Amino acid sequence: NVSTFLEPTTSLVIGLPQIMAYGSYADFLNALENAGELIRIKSPTATELEITEIADREMKKPDGGKAIYIEKPTINGKISSIPLAINTMGSTKRMAMALGANSVDEVAEKLGSLVQAKPPTGLRDAMGLLSRALELRHARPKKVRSGPCKDVIHHFNSPPPQTDPWPDAPNVNQPQNISKDPPSLLDLPILKCWPLDGGRFLTLPCVVTRDPDTGDRNLGMYRMQVYDDQSTGMHWQLQKVAARHGRRYYENGERMPVAVFLGGDPVYPFCATAPMPDGLDEFLLAGYLRGKSVEMIKCETSDLEVPANADIVIEGYIDTTEPLREEGPFGDHTGYYTLPEPYPVFHITAITHRKNATYPATIVGIPPMEDFYMGSASVKLFLPIFQMNFPEIVDIALPAEGTFHNLVFVSIKKTYPMQAFKIMHGLWGMGQMMFSKFIVVVDDFVDVHNTSEVLFHMCADTDPQRDSILTKGPADVLDHATSEIGIGSKLGIDATRKISGENFNRDWPPLIKMDEKIRESIDRRLNN
Asked: 104 in helix, strand or coil?
């Protein structure tokens, strides 16, 4: 039973009752199992396509089904010593549990109160501001000298001289065991997800890079195709922060250190995919959300740092003097395969891991999938930041059919002509919103999370020529429909009620709505 070695830990943070700071990925799995959110598959199950088929069926169930724990994943018919977990954040409930809360709304309210904080005007306001300041003490990562992610250490070459990078940092684990075996990706239960995939892909890797000029750290998530036992592709798209870091290394002709980790607190992969402003450390967000500082440990073969409680760490580099290599095809979140394109090669110098590591994975494909719930949580958490720039925004939704960012629904409190078009242009200029192909703006009374309701107003409240705008801009490189990679067009639709100044010279009719007294009367009759 997995619960025999899982020991959940909690910490109490002001402003959020009972925040869970998971000490390990195993803690999270234990919490899921105790909540009835995890199912086990005890029989050997192939990492080649079989796990994908099982996970896809589960993800397509109402509310995302259950998380799946594969006890005996097989690699080319051989049982791996490392179990696999998938779909662990693939529901509204599990996504909230990953954030250590009862609901995503609870976390969004907490984060919103921080970013929208105002100078106190009285004692009560001052106490509230103080409580938020106390929560921030957890945001800054803390350096440690050792951790469970180094229970076992595999070096590609002979181990470098052991130095003490932070002599004043506390130990958090017993001394490590240096393995004489060479590191190999082939020992990890890495999935071949779909039949036409170019190989096996790490699908939930947290990738750490650093800006060579500023020293700013970035945590991102980019799929990694396994080429052989010691190299992979690194699919960071041209608009991503890590790609920008990489360009500086290429310009300087320098070897680029990269660290990849899997597992640990589930808040890490969430933060890796969150739309953080460029230059802000995702581990700050992770520490704040989990209510406990992220303990960071120096890598064995570079100066990069990773969470000490990660399950698996893959260290390496990108040689900026060697040519790019074809990566793909890959069955992607668009629902289509992305075709081969050249990307950097990641060379492995060391692999470290916990003694009882679990390999976390996900799959993407025709929606709904696990990434829909992760993306929805990101939108909720970062809605207050959008509202700081655009206070008229009431809510934002990215429906599953839009494969995350192709389709965006926005509701606004409209007060002046052409306001919907202002919102469209503003959102297209904010981070990953630049990839949105379609933005539909509706009035504040429309529930953007109800796709049927939005489509009703889009059809009923628009004149296509008057209320739509076509423009051009950057496109997702995974979008197969654009004429050129990374460049495309966008369509904005104003589905709000039209007012004076918007080239509408008629009276706007009222929506059909029953008299409230009649509704209450019929409710009483039907309930008796």
From this structure: helix
